[in-house]
User: What shape does this take?
Amino acid sequence: MDPAVLSEAARAAVERIGTADLVVGLATAGPAPALAAVTAAVRAGLDTHFPGQSAAIAHVDQARSEATTAAVTEALGDLRVVSVGPVAGKDDTLDWSAAVRAVLTVGRMLEARAIVMLNADLASMTSEWLRGLASPVLKEDYALVLPLYRRFRYDGTLTQALVVPLIRSLFGRQLAHPIAEEFACSAAAAEVFLKDTVWETDLGRHGLEFWLPVAAVEHGLPVSQAVLGPRTIAPSAQPPTPLGPTVGRVASALFALAERAEQLWLDIRGSEPVVSFGVPPEPLPGGPAVDPSRMQVGFVQGVRDLLPVWERIIAPDNLGEVLELSDRPLERFRFSDRLWTRVVYDFLLAYRARTVYRSHAVQSLAPLYLGRAASVILDTQSRAPVAVAQSATRLCGVFEDEKPYLVDRWR
Assistant: This one.
């Protein structure tokens, strides 16, 4: 733990508070449309579910204006607040990794038994979120609690196609959502996280939400997951990130994790279930329209544009199957579990070997992901919503079964 990550004013505020059983972290970058609802949910959660616990709020605001800090302090009333100013030397753009580091540092300095990190842009947050995340730490001695959200059937397709099966096959835990976008952790876990050198790396700056669950597993800390409900982000004026950079960031983080923790996962076979608090959620009815034909077009265009790159990444047999797929009409287009698994493993191997410049390699996975997503939609759109979850579970099994393909070539 390095108190130097906090300003002098923030350290003084911590000293005035002394100790707290529970620290709740909120990160903002100036005014947030959902901030009033979020602060109301936090206050109601503390009053309703933790009336006997001393609590403090660690508010990290990336903007240099004091307006948001004043709004948070006013909304939280008599709750004790540690206001942390801009971190990592940036203006008006949230550095989530630096914010998490600051919140964990505040929590450790206050000797908190549980630290909860929440997203101030979540319009759907309720008081139950705080209970769901913090209670397993305070009452059941879990070191890290990850969220389980209720989503539309085709929300999170990248997570289900890449993040969930790869982390499960590598690290042997059946985490339904191994991403610490919101989370709670114990004092022991915070200490482990803060002592690591990851904070100064690209993985720490751009993939911390993937690293936190793996770091907990790596150190033998008990991990659980809690059902929170729908996750709705308040509208933003920022344009959405294009698919290529999004896939590239996620793949880069996962591949860097694999490279960093190879001694942990090379000998792991199979996976173990993880305790869940709450009933696994059914998909929400409705949802945005999805068009597998447009996804297939993106896949075919990728074959045309990126074949010279893929020839250096994908094994010849697997690439031959990809090329054959690009000639199929939509009604016969199916990107099999086994092919997708081996393609992902080929990309991971190429990332490690640096056969292609890494940023180019990971972004070139995007059209292949579009092909896989189109295949899942074509296979499940006329079936019950549970078919999507069944498809994701089956894919995880294939990633585990095909792991020797990766291990043999890695070694």
